[in-house]
Amino acid sequence: MKIYTKRGDRGETSIVGARLQKTDARVEAIGAVDELNSSLGFAIYSCKKHGLSQLTEELIVLSHQLFDAGADLAQAKEAEWKITSAHTDALERCIDAHTAKLPPLSGFILPGGSEPACALHRCRTDARKAERKINSVANVSQALLPFFNRLSDCFFTMARSANHELAEQDVLYVGEQRLQREE
What we know:
- This protein has one domain: Up-down Bundle (Hypothetical Protein Ta1238, Chain: A), CATH 1.20.1200.
- The protein has six helices and four strands.
- The protein has helices spanning 25-49, 53-73, 85-100, 115-135, 144-165, 176-182, and strands at residues 12-15, 18-21, 109-110, 171-172.
- The longest helix is centred in the first third of the chain and has 25 residues, at 25-49.
- The protein is elongated.
- Residues 3-161 form the Cobalamin adenosyltransferase-like domain.
- Pathway: Cofactor biosynthesis; adenosylcobalamin biosynthesis; adenosylcobalamin from cob(II)yrinate a,c-diamide: step 2/7.
C-alpha cells in the first residue's frame, strides 16, 4: 500500500461518509487532536526517559483515547461514540489521585521545571486548542467538550506531579511588580 493517494491534492480530504475542504472546522478539529497526540508522544517519551512509569502508563492510555476522539470527530453523522462521559470521570479520578500527592497550589504556575513537566504543559495548551476547535464543530459527541476540558486539567496536574516526583520546583508566577522589586 502506498502512503500517498493524491486524493487530497486539491484541498479536500475524506472523513467517514463525506469529502470536506481541509479548512473545514471538523478537519481543523481533527488536526488539533492529532497535534495534541503528537505532543503527547513526546511527553510519553520524556516521562519514560525520566523513570516516571505511572505517568508513562497513564499517558499511553490517553494517547489511545485521543485517537478514538479523532475517530469520533471523523463521523459526519451521529454514530456510536468511542469517547463517553465515563472517560471524563476517569480523568477526574486521575486528577484527584495526583492532586492528593501534591502540595496545595499557592499561586499561578508557569510552564517549566523538569523536561516531562514542560512536555505535559505543552500537551495542556494543545488540549485547550483542540477544545476550542471542537467547540466550533456542529454535530459532535456531547462527551468530547467535557473530556477535553478535563484533559487539559489532567495534563496540568500531571506536569505538577512530574516535577514533584523529580524533586523539581514548579515555576511560580511572581508578577511584574515583584520582579521589579527584586532587581
